[in-house]
Every structure is written in C-alpha cells, then in structure tokens.
Amino acid sequence: MAVPVEEAIAALSTFSLEDEQPEVQGPGVWVSTERGATESPIEYSDVSAYRLSLSEDTKALNQLNVLSQEGKEMASVLYTYRSCVKALPQLPDSMKQSQADLYLETYQVLDLEMSRLREIQRWQASASSKLAADMQRFSRPERRINGPTISHLWSMLKLLDVLVQLDHLKNAKASIPNDFTWYKRTFTQVSGQWQDSDSMREELDDLQIFLSTRWAILLNLHVEMFRVNNVEDILQVLIVFVVESLELDFALLFPERHILLRVLPVLVVLVTSSEKDSESLYKRVKINRLINIFKNEAVIPAFPDLHLSPAAILKELSTYFPKFSSQTRLLTLPAPHELPPREAQEYQRHYLIINHIGAIRAEHDDFVIRFASAMNQLLLLKSTDGSDIEWSKEVKGNMYDMIVEGFQLLSKWTARIWEQCAWKFSRPCKDPSESFSDYEKVVRYNYSAEERKALVELVSYIKSVGSMMQRCDTLVADALWETIHAEVQDFVQNTLAIMLRTTFRKKKDLSRILSDMRTLSADWMANTNKSESELQSSQHGGEDSKANIFYPRAVAPTTAQVHCLQFLIYEVVSGGNLRRPGGLFGNSGSEIPVNDLKQLETFFYKLGFFLHILDYSATVATLTDLGFLWFREFFLESSRVIQFPIECSLPWMLVDCVLESPNSGLLESVLMPFDIYNDSAQQALVLLKQRYLYDEIEAEVDHCFDIFVTKLCEIIFTYYKSWAASELLDPSFLFASDNAEKYAVQPIRLNMLLKMTRVKLLGRMINLRSLITERINKAFRENIEFLFDRFECQDLCAIVELEKLLDVLKHSHELLSRDLSIDSFSLMLNEMQENISLVSFSSRLASQIWSELQTDFLPNFILCNTTQRFIRSSRTVPVQKPSVPSAKPSFYCGTQDLNSAHQSFARLHSGFFGIPHMYSIVRLLGSRSLPWLIRALLDHISNKITLLEPMITGLQESLPKSIGLLPFDGGVTGCVRLVKEHLNWETKSELKAEVLHGLKEIGSVLYWMGLLDIVLREKDSMDFMQTAPWLGLLPGGDGQIVTSQDGEHSPVVSLFKSTASAMVSYPGCPSPSSFHIMAKQAEAADLLYKANLNSGSVLEYALAFTSAALDKYCSKWSAAPKTGFIDITISKDFYRIYSGLQIGYLEESAQVSPNSHDRLGDSIAWGGCTIIYLLGQQLHFELFDFSYQILNIAEVEAVSVMQTHKNSQFSVQGWEALLEAMKKARRLNNHVFSMLKARCPLEEKTACAIKQSGAPIHRIKFDNTVSAFETLPQKGA
Question: Per-residue DSSP letters for 62-123?
C-alpha cells in the first residue's frame, strides 16, 4: 500500500540531519571557479519600462560597470605578475653559439607577458576616455537628465578607483620594468629578420613610456577630462558626495568606504589642477573637512600587502600637477613614516585592534544575544498559525534591523583588520637586524603576542557571526523581503500621498516627480482595506485618502526600481543643479520643509541598504572574506624570494599563537584562522584567477594543517596526562606542600575540537577527530615505548617509577576515552610488550626484569634481612647500559611541576629493592608472565647448583679426611689457628669467591621468591574476599572453608538463572536467549573461580624445586654414616664446606670496611642454610660448625676467666669483632632455619606441586618419602 505524500513528508521531517559537531568554523563556502551569487551582477534592463529618460544613463552605467569589472581583472594581472627574468637560463661560454636560439626562446616567453601589459595600456586609455566622456556628458547643455544619479556617481568612483589602483600597482611592481628591459633587448636581437619591425618598435616605445612614467594613467585621465570645460562641476559633485558619504557613514560595506578614501585625494588633485578657479571647490567643501579626513585616515588599504597614504599621494602628484603644488595646507600633511612619535602613538591607538577588542567583545556578545532572541521570535512566528499582523510586522522588522546591524558590525570589524594590516605595512618593526626580510619586519616581528591574540579573537567573531547569519539565510529571507516591501509601500503610498496633498500640492513639476515615484514602485494589489474606487483615488493622491494597510508580500524592489527611486528623490531635492551649495541633503536654498526633507533623506539612505540586504549571501561572503591576510605578492618581489616560510604567514602565525598561548579559552577558535586559507584560495581562483597561487596556498595548508594536528595532539596529550598525574598525586603530599596550587591543572575545553568530524578546508572535508585519534594512539604507544626504554636503561629499583608512570598513562587514557574512541590500553601495552600471541608468556618487561636479575641484581645487590630489602653492594661488577633517554615532559607527567612531584616519590624507592617493588612487578607482569619469570629463576637456581658442584668438589679435596671437634683447652686463639690449618684453601681463593657468590645468588633468588610469595598471598587473599560471597563460600568452625548449602548452585549462578527464568516468562522481553547465555556464562565463571581458589605458595614451590635439584648431588654432598650414628669426624659434607666458607668471610667481615659482608650481605646465609636444610644437615651444622664451636669455647673461656679474676667485664683479647660477627651469623642462621621449618617442614614428608597452567597449588601430603618430588618438572627431563 502506497504511503501518501503528506505522511511521507511528515515522517521525513522528524529526522534530524544534524550531528553533535559544534560550529567552530566560519561560513562553509566551497572553493569553486564557477560563477556564484557573490558576483552579483547589477543590470538595469527594466529601466526603459518606467519612461523616466534614464535609458541613456543606464547604458552609461552598464558601460562603466563593465569597465570596472575589466579593470579589476587587469589589476589582478598586475598584482600577481611575477618576474620571468629570474627563470631565464644563463648559457656557459661553451654554448655561445646557441645565443641566438636562446634570445628567440626568451622573446617568445616574454612576449606573452608583454602582450598582457599592452592590453592593460590599451584598456586604460579606452577607460580613461570613456570615463572623461561620461563626465563631460553632464556638462553639456543638451543633457537628458539634470545630474548623475547616485548609482552613476558610484560607478564613476569605482572606475576611477580601479584606474588609481592600476597606476599604483604599475608604480610599485619593479619586476615589470625589469622584464620589459630584457624583452626589449631580445627584441633588438631577433627583430632583424621581421618585415614590420618598425611598427612593432613604435609599440614598444609607447609601452616603455607607459611603464616608465609614474602616474601615467592619472596623467592621461587628466588630459582626457579637460579636453572640454565645465568638468570641474561634476568633479566637485563627486567630492561633495565622497565627503558627505564618509562623514555620514553612508557606505554600508567597508569596500565602498575604502573606495571613497582612495579616490578622494585624486579627485582633489584633479579639481585643483584645472584651468578654472580651483578655490571654487572650497566654497562647497571647506578645506578643513578634507584635512580632517586625510589626517584621520593616514593609511588606506589598497591591495593585501600594498597600502596608500593620502599625504604621500598628494605630495607625489604635486610634482606632476603644477597647479596643485600651491595647496600648501594639503601638502604639509605628514606621511605615515614621517609621523612624530607622539602622533604615531595616537594613530596606533586608533588602528591597532588590541585597543578596541574590549568594546568589540561587548558588541559581539550583545549582538549575538539579541540576534538569537530575534531568531527565536521569528521561528515562533512561523510556527504560529493566524498570528497578529502587527506582531508579525514587529518581529520581522526587528529581524531586519538585526540583519542591518549585523552587516554594519561585520563591515566595521573587517575594516579594522584591513586598516590594521595597512598600518603595520606602513610602520615596520624597528629591529635593526639585517637578517630579517622586509616581510618579516612588517608581519612576523611586527605583531606582538597580545596583538595576535586580539586578531584571532576578532577573526573568530567575524567568522562566527558570519556563519550564524549565513545559516539563517533561508529562514530570514521572507522576513527581509516583506519588511523591505512594507518600507517601500509605506513611503510611496502613505508618505508621498501626504506630501502630494500638502507640501507639493501647487508645485506641478515636483508633484509629477512624486507621482512618477508612486507609479513605478507602488504595489496597489497588496492593499487590503480599499475598494476598487478607493484604490483608484489613492493612486491619484485624493485629498481624503486614508493611511493604507498592506498585506505582507515577500516581493522586493528590483535594482532598477531602487535606481529610479534614488534618481527621483535626488531630482526633488537638488532640482538637478550641480552647483547647488550645501551638499546632497543640505537645506540651503531649498523650499522643501525640514520634516519632509528628513523623510526623503531617511528613505534615500534606506534604498542604499536594500540592495546589499537583498543580495544576502554575497554580502555575508564579502564581509567575512579575510583572504587578503595571506597574500604577499609585493613583498615576494621586493624580497626576491620564491615564497616565504610558513613562520611568516599571518594565518599560520594566528594558529600557532592560539596553540602556544597559555589562554586556554582561545583554543576553541583555533580553526578560525584556517578559514583565511579558504578565503584566499577562493580569491586566487575566482578573483585573481591564478592557479599557481592556489597551488601555493594548498601546499602551505597541507603543511600547516599537519603541524597543527601534531601540535594539537601534543596539547591534548599533555593536558590529559597532567590531569591524570594531578589526580594521582598523594593527598598527604598536597596537604604538606606549601604551594599545592601549582600541581592543579587548569581545565581546557577540548571536547568541542574532539567532536570535529568535518573541518572545511579548501573544498575538502577533513575528519579531525579521526586524525587526532590516530595520533593519540601513536602517542600512547610511543609513550609506552619510551617508558620501557627508560626502564631498560636503569636498574630493577626503577620498576616502581615505571609502574607509577604507567598508572598515570593509563589514567590519562581513561580520561581521554570519555571523548575519543581510542585503542584499549591493555591492547597497546601488550602490543608494546610484544605479548600479543596466545602462546607467548615472556613479555618484553618480564624479559627485561629477568635480564636485570641476571646481569645486575643478583651479582651486585646484597640482602639486608632486617629491613627485608636488597641494596646495591659497595663493590659492584660494572654493567654496560645505554644512557637514560630524555623526552618531553608530556611523556612523564605532563608538566615540570608534576614531573618533579612524581620524581620525588620515585626517588624514595630508587636506592633499594623490597616489598613495594615486588608489588609493582606482580601488578605489571600479571598472571600471564609471572609464571615464566618464576620458572626462569628456578632454572637459574638449578644451573647455579650445577655450576657449584665442581667448585665444591675442589674445596672438598683440599680438606683433611677427618676433622674432629675443636679442643676447649686451646682457647679461641688456638681454635682459630686450628681451623685455618684444617682449611687449607690458600690456593683456592678464587674458587672460594665463586662459591660464595654462587651461594649468595641462590640465597638472593630464594629470598626474592619469599618477597614474591608475601605479595601474592596478599593479592590472593584480596581476590578471595571479593569472590567468596558470590561463590557461596563461608568460614568453617575449624578455620576451614565450607560451601553454603542454601541451594544447588552458587549465589552468582542462582541469580542469573532466576533472572533468565523471569525474563523468559515476561512476554515483552525482546531477547530471552541472551539471558540464557548469561546464565551459562555465570556457570563457567563459577567453575573458573572455584578452580583457582586453592593457590599455593611460590616460596614452598621454590624450596621443593631446589630440593629436587639437589637430589643428584646428595650422594656427594651428604655422605651416609657408616655406623648409623652421627660421625663427628666427617669432612666432605656440604655443611663442612659452608662452615669453612662462613668462618672465612666472617673473619674478613670483622676487618675494616669494605669487607665481605658489604659484598655478600645476608643472602649468603639464605643460600647456604637452605642447601644445608634441604640436604638434612641442619643438626650437623649446628653441632659442628666452626664458628659455633668457637663461640662455645669463647663462652667457656670467658666463664673460667671470670671465676678466676672475678671480673665480669672480660673479653677475649683481639677477637671481639670476629666473635660479634659469629653471633650475628648464628642469629641469622637460626632465623633462616626457623623460616625453612615453617614453610618446608621435612618431618611432614611434604612437597609442592604446580599445575600445567603454571599456577602453584597448596602443599600435598604423601604417604612415603620416595615419591615426594615426582610431580616436579626436572631439568633436562
């Protein structure tokens, strides 16, 4: 069944094509070379229908407009002209025979450019003669109309402005005469073979005169104008019109005002240089008015990087127009570079935007609020059916006023940018450095940071207001047309009707003009309260005519109607007298009452606004066009370079200013300066019509946008990194800090930029969000890579710093993920750790930790058993490591202050290795890589034991076959000497050192495993406390874990099963199968977590593994007694070897530091005692250890001496330090043995096992000892 069209349209209207992208760019204008609405051709083809004797005038108007358009194209050719001479090749001496061919080729190239210059020469001559003829037409007595219309005055002024700009460009472009010189030289060389070379030479001479003569176009215009007399009248009319328009601010758009300013000094020169009395001008326009204008407008924008100065023009033209040289008051005006410092400061206050930005900001805020309110009222009106006519008229009239005000604000703001640029070009910076180019002096170094910020702000205001007005084009169109229609109809039907009945009743000529105005523009069909007879009476202005009420119609007047109305009003006011004093609406000698004159004047100026408002889009485009800020053709020529670096480009300077500015509020405007590139590209293609300019703009945009994205991503990354680092700071640290504010991060509104998916740039749509996401992903990976590189250049103690920095990075990733869809942090971390494969368990970090343990930690760190810490030994083996890489602050914690704060925390853990470091290792490696590291350490123990076996055998061979108990009668001294005799190891010093270091490393690994076990037990306990309630586990009466018997399943499974059953029975459930899937997943999770509850002890597993590794050497290191009783004379057991090694290093440690304890620490006791304990030799060691026996003898000796001498302060002379070291060693050994008994009690016949997954499990009790270690993986099995 087909859907009705009305329903389909209604359905479509409910869809929104808008997205969440904020508007932080100017109006979206596609770069195009096709003709668009911005060109706005003005034609007067319907003027002849009104029979007002304006046919001849409109033909002249069209001719002048065509000439102006052609002249602009000529000016574009001159402005974009670049020297060809620089590209000409220079032939070496070996190719002089090809000189003639080179001249011919050069001539053909240059002839193309010179043909354009000849065309300009011919055009200016034609345009000057036509403009002069048009002016002279109004001086003839047989003229059809009394004086030029306002449109005609504007057309004359625009053409004159084009001629002045052409002359100025011709004077300024030095490359043109240079190319012409080469052209003439090549012509001389190649013209000998041509027939008509004489005529060509004459053309060449004329062109040379034209190009070499300054102000040649103006001089030619002067000659053409004064071929007949009486032209002064029309020139004076033009001057009066210009002065009044400037003083009354009649020009709505800033380009019109600049036209008036550019032509005024030229008009003054032309009038005062005539044959007639030049002082007649000052009777109509006081000279002080001219001087004030010239003083207030010291510089006038002409081209993007060219300016005009009225004072400079007047002074230069005085040499070409002798009669004007008598105008001393005008010639004494100072040029911009001649201004004294005090006056220059005054001008700066006027021209620099920074001095007005406060007022501009207030104007912008006020206008935006009122414009939005007017738009809301208009939208409400459109949604209301049958609204009141008066209210409708008020709302639309208010909207019209807001549009006019918006145009005026945009015009004023854009004019300020033009004028500031002109001022900057006229006043380069005073830096004496010769390395700066001229363009750098006027742009790069001529704008302070504050001036750039003010300029960015103003550009943002212009583009945002322009975009706001452009978006509502279609919404306000009807309101504007209806308001204009109502204004015109109210004037012609009501105001003029009253005038016809009162003021002009007896003035037949003027009444005829007013009737003509009503005839050509009155819309009688819109009258709603008149009968047909009353309408006819109204049309003839009957006496009893009442005020008419009009039905609103969106019908605007045509350009011809506006033109005719202005002409008729001018006729009424001036009577066509060109010499009439007082200006256009001066009341001098006029018979029209002041009130009527004021009404005519008001409507006259409104007519001038109508055309711009009707051409809405073109007006917005003109007023928001800032493309001139990029062009620099004049300075490229004067600096003799192909192009300036982007640091000199004003648009990029503004972007860079925003990026580098500490003012975070400007960051939302960072895309606005890129609209300057859009505008300049449009100008290059449409106005200047030069492809190479567009190519240069495009190349710069590509480069700048790439740099912009890079810098913006750096700002984003730094901000979020700083934010994360600030949140992770210890509150107690902040509380104790004297200046905690410096660690706070000021918020930046980046979310608007992060939503930008369509950035309009040179007709392309760029997904900025995607680019930022790509670069942020890369930045995170580079940051992780840097942190790993940094860790790899440090020792194992830096693991805490690595974890803290990774925590900061991870938290910044969490914060940034709220606004951007970036890759998972765990994915990036695994990728950088090369741990992506499912079968890879040795991550990059685990490999580096293992490498550090092997090469630096185990050889160079010693254990302090009391503090449970490893510290670096005083005697270390040098380890070659690369230097620590440096990076930007953003790769650490964002800012220098936050870096310092986190570094102060990291330094607390940089001098030792202990429990905090083990926590970091466990958290960083996780359950995937930690088993691999544990297995690597256990293999290291096995390898060390294997390496120690031949060394211990060598030490065993040096011992006597039997060693008895030390005699008590020998005393400490004798016993020590006897031990040295037994330990005949003087030749085995290197072997002893190797064995000691091997035992130290074994002890260090085992103690390291103990620290790891402590951390893992705490982690397992925390995990158990979190999962036990969901698994239904409860504490039993004897401390055992029991399962609750409330139901068949655990709580988590019961919860999901009951939810699934309830949702299946609910009829409105959209997807009941998904709940069944969740219930199955809950069962799987229940099984998984219950299977991992019985986690074992890593230390117990390590001891069991070590015991298994010792099995193969048990027969060599632990001989069974032959008699079944303890043999007190045995000398080959391991405990004898360790006892000898222990007393040796204890004796050495009793000496002056550095001693052996500083090199071995407490790890030696853990290694030796563990092997003794696992070999079952603990009792033997405690009974027969040399140091233990010496301590016993020392105690007996002390007791006997005290009884003899009755002296409680007895000490063994000379052996105090050694005995104290022995006591410490005995206490340490006892502690180690007690720990081993607690964790690995041999009498219980226990061992540990490990799962296939690598997770250790609880101790397993076996019935007999034979199979105790069969479950352990054996080396080389």
Answer: HHHHHHHHHHHHHHHHHHT---SGGG-----GGGGGGHHHHHHHHHHHHHHHHHHHHHHHHH
Nearest Cα to Cα of residue 1255 among 1091, 1083, 1010: 1091
Same domain, 60 and 79: yes
**926, part of any domain:** no
b/e per residue 1088-1123 (b: at least 16 CB within 10 A): ebeebeebbbbbbbbbbbbbbbbeebeeebbeeeee
Inside any domain, residue 468: no
DSSP string over 736-751: H-S-GGGG-------H
Mean pLDDT in residue range 821-836: 89
Return the number of other C-beta atoms located less than 10 Å from residue 682's C-beta.
25
DSSP string spanning 473-542?
HHHHHHHHHHHHHHHHHIIIIIIHHHHHHTTTTT-HHHHHHHHHHHHHH--GGGB-S--HHHHHHHHTT-
Instruction: Single out the residue of 1017, 802, 1095 nearest to residue 920, CA to CA.
Output: 802
pTM for the full predicted model: 0.85
User: Are 996 and 1054 found together in one domain?
Assistant: no
User: How high does pLDDT run on average in the chain?
Assistant: 83
The structure tokens listed for 481 are 């047309």
390 to each of 381, 397, 1214, 1226, how far by Cα in Å? 12, 10, 119, 108
Measured CA to CA, the distance from residue 969 to residue 144 in angstroms comes to: 152
Is 882 contained in some domain? Answer: yes
Q: What total number of domains does the chain contain? A: 5
| pLDDT tens by residue, 1073-1123 | 888 888 888 888 888 877 777 677 899 999 999 999 998 888 888 877 666
- Contact (CB, 8 A) for 426 and 299: yes
Same-domain pairing of 887 and 771: yes
Rounded to whole angstroms, the Cα distance separating 23 from 16 reads: 17
45 and 130 share a domain? yes
Tell me if 58 sits within 8 A of 144, measured CB to CB.
no
Amino acid identity, position 1158: D
Amino acid identity for residue 946 in this structure: T
Q: How many residues appear in the chain?
A: 1277
Q: Sign of the CA dihedral 1190, 1192, 1193, 1198?
A: positive
Cα dihedral across residues 618, 619, 622, 623: positive or negative: negative
Give residue-wise pLDDT tens across range 569-609.
Answer: 877 777 655 555 555 665 445 567 788 888 888 888 888 88
* 1123 shares a domain with 1083: no
On whether both 1128 and 1244 belong to a single domain, the answer is: yes
> Do 614 and 42 contact (CB within 8 A), yes or no?
no
Helices and strands in the chain: count of H runs, count of E runs: 50, 10
For 276, the 3-state DSSP assignment is: coil
Name the DSSP letter for residue 1125: S
Nearest to 495 by CA among 606, 610, 609, 603: 603
- Does 954 share its domain with 820? no
Answer yes or no: are the C-beta atoms of 765 and 758 closer than 8 Å.
Answer: yes
- Among 1091, 1121, 1150, identify where a domain stops: 1091
What is the end-to-end Cα distance of the chain in Å, rounded? 79
Q: What percent of the chain has pLDDT over 90?
A: 36
Q: Which domain holds residue 780?
A: 707-913
Distance CA 459, CA 43 (A): 34
SS (H, E, C) 964-1026: CCCCHHHHHHHHHHHHHHHCCCHHHHHHHHHHHHHHHHHHHHHHHHHHHHHHHHHHHHHHHHH
Q: List the single range of 589-593, 628-632, 1027-1031, 1056-1060 with lowest mean pLDDT.
A: 589-593
Report which secondary-structure segment, H or E, holds 1247: strand 1246-1247
Residue 316 and residue 372: Cα distance in Å, rounded? 51
Distance of alpha carbon 940 from its chain centroid, rounded?
Answer: 51
Whether 965 maps to a domain, the answer reads: yes
